Amino acid sequence: MATSPVAGPERWLELDLSMAQVKTLMVVRAHGRSRIGLVARDLGLSANAATAAVDRLEAAGLAERHADPSDRRAVLVCVTPAGEQFVYDLMTAGVRAFNDHIEALADGDLDALCCGLEALFAAVAGSPGDALEQPTAKHQASAATATTGHR
What we know:
Elements: H1 10-13, H2 19-31, E1 34-35, H3 36-43, H4 47-59, E2 63-68, E3 71-79, H5 81-103, H6 107-125, H7 137-148
Antiparallel strand pairs: 1-3, 2-3
Helix pairs in contact: 2-3, 2-4, 3-4
């Protein structure tokens, strides 16, 4: 079976976290410092299940707990700098792999890609431009060659 030329599963396979723990990390990161109850609610988990997920994140150095200054019985959870880096690495792995492929292109290939993308963006946006103009004689001849094999 062929693998994607853009980004493989390698980074995801390196994870020593369950999907529930990764989701918990994402929710904690989205909220900033927040109580476990809020995290549990957003994940549809019990407070005990969310606490267990945060325990695992804390053991991995990806999250940490702090006393809530407004309620000394409560605890706030937040993502550590290592957790931020972890999320960033996961979220940008595909883009970074794609950029590596782009940087490997020859100048002529990169120019052709840019022209093609500009035409595609113009067509998607519905703006007038080369992508939406009437075909020129060159385009018609090229299309005829592609469909019939001769001009």
